[in-house]
Design a protein that fits this description.
Elements: H1 5-16, E1 20-30, E2 33-43, E3 49-53, H2 60-73, E4 76-81, H3 87-96, E5 99-102, H4 111-131, H5 137-145, H6 148-155, H7 157-167, H8 173-191
Parallel strand pairs: 3-4, 4-5
Antiparallel strand pairs: 1-2, 2-3
């Protein structure tokens, strides 16, 4: 089974804090039946913690799950996530004695994880930008106008709106103008127009 990135991150953080990871995805059994799973079973001094890891915010349900699973296996409960979903979740954790560590509280990122995050963000931006390209002579009007206001004067409001709707995936006005310049260049190359 492939482990979630948030679980690997939680394990790395806990190890760096001196915790021993005793088990990963430890089954919670009642009798001979598996009823749940503890994401990480870690052992600090004085005893084991059953850690419920959330990739997003920790909500009341996650706190209850951590508490119930931990008690079922004789460990102390802990939750980890990117923050609290609401005030009630934190209040319940405090009331039940569920320990917590939020990713926002610690600086965590291996080189590989940082690379994955940056690569994903850059890829998403490039795909949006490339998908916004629209080789069309009207793109040249926008590119050569230098501003959307000038392009509106040249094309008319409705024509510009239609073209911007197609090219709007690029992002803000600077990105749209860059997409227009590249779209114009592509149009000229496809049509054999020099300029």
């Amino acid at each position: 089974m492939r482990r979630a990135r948030s679980e690997r991150l939680a394990e790395e953080v806990l190890r760096s804090m001196g915790f021993e990871v005793v088990s990963v995805n430890a089954p919670v059994k009642v009798g001979d039946k598996e009823v749940a799973e503890v994401d990480l079973l870690v052992k600090p001094p004085p005893g084991p913690l059953a850690v419920e890891v959330k990739s997003g915010k920790v909500d009341v349900s996650a706190v209850r799950q951590a508490y119930a699973n931990a008690k079922a296996i004789g460990a102390e409960p802990m939750v980890m996530g990117s923050g609290w979903a609401n005030e009630e979740a934190k209040l319940l954790a405090d009331k039940l004695g569920v320990k917590y560590l939020m990713f926002e509280d610690v600086m965590v990122a291996s080189k590989e994880e940082l690379y994955d995050v940056v690569k994903g963000a850059v890829t998403e931006v490039l795909v949006r930008f490339i998908n916004s390209l629209y080789p069309d002579e009207r793109a040249c009007v926008i590119a050569e106008a230098g501003s959307l206001e000038e392009a509106e004067k040249a094309l008319g409001k409705e024509e510009l709106r239609k073209l911007l709707k197609r090219m709007g995936r690029a992002g803000g006005s600077e990105a749209v103008l860059a997409a227009a310049r590249l779209s114009c260049l592509l149009w000229k190359l496809l049509k054999g127009v020099k300029g």
